[in-house]
Amino acid sequence: xxxxxxxxxxxxxxxxxxxxxxxxxxxxxxxxxxxxxxxxxxxxxxxxxxxxxxxxxxxxxxxxxxxxxxxxxxxxxxxxxxxxxxxxxxxxxxxxxxxxxxxxxxxxxxxxxxxxxxxxxxxxxxxxxxxxxxxxxxxxxxxxxxxxxxxxxxxxxxxxxxxxxxxxxxxxxxxxxxxxxxxxxxxxxxxxxxxxxxxxxxxxxxxxxxxxxxxxxxxxxxxxxxxxxxxxxxxxxxxxxxxxxxxxxxxxxxxxxxxxxxxxxxxxxxxxxxxxxxxxxxxxxxxxxxxxxxxxxxxxxxxxxxxxxxxxxxxxxxxxxxxxxxxxxxxxxxxxxxxxxxxxxxxxxxxxxxxxxxxxxxxxxxxxxxxxxxxxxxxxxxxxxxxxxxxxxxxxxxxxxxxxx
Length: 405
What we know:
Layout: H1 2-18, E1 21-24, E2 39-43, H2 70-77, E3 81-86, H3 120-127, E4 133-138, H4 144-150, E5 153-156, E6 174-179, H5 182-192, E7 206-209, H6 219-234, E8 238-241, H7 247-262, H8 273-283, H9 287-310, E9 315-319, H10 337-342, H11 347-352, E10 356-364, E11 367-374, H12 380-391
Parallel strand pairs: 2-3, 2-4, 7-8, 7-9
Antiparallel strand pairs: 1-3, 4-6, 5-6, 5-10, 9-11, 10-11
Helix pairs in contact: 3-4, 7-8, 7-9
């Protein structure tokens, strides 16, 4: 198939410096169907039959998946070609994409810059034109973070819209979609969710905008959000500022995430030192620690995200991240205080169980910046409609990184 061969050629030409893939299937082939002609990069914590399934860990370096995840099976049945598996941090537990067994993944926009994480390999592959679309997971922002860093579109669907063989003990992780356009995200989501792609009639909406927080943020992130708000207001939508707080959510997540990591069936001594420490901390937690943390984080997320949506706002608009893309070595340690500043807008959405999409909102110092749109649970179609309105305006939407031709 000529399409597959073109993407394999792009991988051969570009991935020796980006390191998005950890395994490429040279025999990948698609078929006729709704996704015929599409090529797909799959994060390596999602099983694809016959391909490696490492979770970014030496523990499972030699594991081969016996069957496709449900979502992968649907994509394959719809005609897409699965090009291979993409890099991630060990156990998907970081906001960059580095681990002990594969080379660091670079941002296609600039070598040495993080692509974000934990779905950074899939995002980098899509941004660089080494796959049409990507599949990743999002527990605390792991689709939206790399989408913003790499300048592409990333959708975190409502929980349970896309089925998975894997069970997240915390009930926060979802399988999400990455693409260069909202239209491709919509199509991929419709197949994975077994839901016909829909586009609703445009109407004036009430949109709550959060562009200030007690934690603060980089000026470029504020500017991207304000530009998006201005565009939406000019399009006839009613825009109002809303409050945004994330500290309680982040504090609860720090406990919940450690407990989730502790559930992996392996000796902690086999993990890299940073992960080992967090797994051991998770296994030392009691049930009351977990439930109190989960309740605290969920209550805070309800106040920040759900309360405005239940009080008459149709959508929320925020920066995707609190910091612009950074050097790989400067990525905040997982669950640290700087990490809380970075993920202050994506994390509350996860605990609110609402869908959200990150959309490219131009560049700062030659690197992408994104904005996040949040919708009501189960309303992905309406959310993507609004994203398409914004995408169509100059200054928003995908741009091809320089130096790839």
